[in-house]
Write a structure and sequence with these properties.
Blueprint (H helix, E strand, L loop, with lengths): L3 E3 L5 H4 L4 E8 L5 E3 L6 E15 L2 E5 L3 E5 L5 E18 L3 H7 L6 E5 L2 H15 L6 H19 E3 L5 H7 L1 H10 L6 H8 L3 H12 L3 H19 L5 H7 L5 H12 L3 H9 L1
Antiparallel strand pairs: 1-2, 2-7, 3-7, 4-5, 4-6, 4-7, 6-8, 8-9
Helix pairs in contact: 3-4, 5-8, 6-7, 7-8, 9-12
Pfam families: AraC_binding, HTH_18
GO molecular function: DNA-binding transcription factor activity; sequence-specific DNA binding
InterPro entries: AraC-bd (IPR003313), AraC_XylS_family_regulators (IPR050204), Homeodomain-like_sf (IPR009057), HTH-like (IPR037923), HTH_AraC (IPR018060), HTH_AraC-typ_CS (IPR018062), Tscrpt_reg_AraC-type_HTH (IPR020449)
């Protein structure tokens, strides 16, 4: 690795994109940086080797391999090496939807995040630097797409403070998800779902809510209705009652009511919408 930093020429059209990269690069040995007024862009700075320290809001946290700093625009901070060389790569970014998107992705705070499988993010950071250093006059558009994927990956793979990443949370309930996939049409109980994990029903619910923000049987319902929509369009001659039975609803009236609650239309109306 060598020191590098790239800044795009952002046209007025690119500045109107929902999000866009403002720089990308890396340092072999990150110098001490003091920003009492914060920085004008949002930043993701990922550690390659060595160790640094971030001071933020009166607290300090170390940043080592497999970790990075997410820094909101305008937030005062300071960071410096404590074990040299402290090698880092980064992107800075902005855009009208960035604050809301970070909130929705649960990347709600400036601070140090731990990343599972950091190589995936590093590949995207390298690609961002490659795009920013190129000569394509439309590289701002590609940079915007790269940034979107990077933030999604960060949300999936990172954890803040003591919490695990979403990817790790999903791995913890993988047997439950497989059971739902295989037996969604059966009369599953919470005990069945908890048994797939070897935990209590209460803890199974807690694990599921942590991963998806909903109860297990809300997910079962969504999975059943997804299959129902596929069946409705796979065979137009298949009766609505039979579709409901195949996805786990023996009472046709309840199936139709639930489908309308979730989809805003009855199964027949859904099918007609696609038939034209």
């Amino acid at each position: 690795m060598r020191d590098r930093n790239f800044f795009p020429v952002l046209t007025e059209l690119e500045l109107q994109l929902p999000m866009y990269l403002t720089s990308a690069g890396g340092w072999i040995n990150q110098e001490r940086t003091d920003r009492p007024d914060g920085f004008f862009s949002f930043q993701w700075i990922q550690c390659l080797r060595g160790q640094g320290r971030l001071e933020l809001g009166g607290a300090a946290a170390d940043v080592g391999e497999g970790q990075g700093m997410l820094l909101y625009a305008g937030v005062p901070h300071r960071y410096y090496a404590v074990q040299e060389p402290w090698s880092v790569v980064w992107v800075t970014f902005h855009g009208s939807v960035v604050p809301e998107m970070l909130e929705r992705l649960r990347l709600k705070e400036s601070g140090v995040y731990t990343v599972s499988e950091p190589e995936s993010l590093l590949e995207q950071l390298d690609r961002a630097a490659e795009v920013m250093s190129g000569s394509d006059p439309l590289r701002g558009y590609e940079g915007s797409a790269l940034l979107y994927r990077l933030l999604l990956d960060l949300a999936k793979r990172s954890s803040f403070k003591a919490g695990g990443s979403r990817q790790q949370h999903l791995q913890s309930i993988a047997p439950m998800l497989r059971l739902i996939e295989e037996r969604y049409a059966d009369d599953l109980s919470l005990d069945d779902l908890a048994g797939s994990l070897g935990v209590t029903p209460q803890y199974a619910c807690a694990l599921f809510r942590r991963s998806f923000g909903m109860r297990p049987f809300e997910y079962v319902t969504k999975h059943r209705l997804r299959r129902a929509k596929e069946l409705l369009l796979a065979d137009f001659s298949l009766a609505v009652a039979e579709v409901g039975r195949r996805v786990g609803y023996g009472h046709t009236s309840y199936f139709i009511k639930l489908f309308k609650q979730q989809e805003g239309m009855t199964p027949s109306q859904f099918r007609q919408l696609f038939l034209g």
